[in-house]
Specification:
Layout lengths: L4 E6 L2 E6 L11 E6 L3 E6 L2 H18 L14
Antiparallel strand pairs: 1-2, 2-3, 3-4
């Protein structure tokens, strides 16, 4: 049986293809969208819907991430 395949990964959000065979040996894939913070979020059978769910989860993750400017110096002791 083939192993799971990572299709996309960005900012801690992953989209994986999970192999699953029926009793007669026919391949029946599922797709898993997971977030490093919250674990497995969705198991989806349609690949197009899985990619859309990945995009929505990624957008939510990036909006929730705090923005810290890299050029701002630390002012300690003032």
């Amino acid at each position: 049986m083939p192993k799971k395949t990572l299709l996309r990964s960005r900012a801690g959000v992953q989209l994986e293809r999970l192999p699953r065979s029926t009793k007669n040996g026919k391949d029946f894939p599922r797709f898993r969208v997971s977030d490093a913070r919250r674990g497995v979020l969705l198991l989806i059978q349609d690949e197009g819907e899985a990619h859309r769910a990945f995009a929505r989860t990624l957008a939510a993750r990036l909006q929730a991430r705090p923005v810290v400017p890299k050029t701002a110096p630390m002012m300690v002791g003032f």
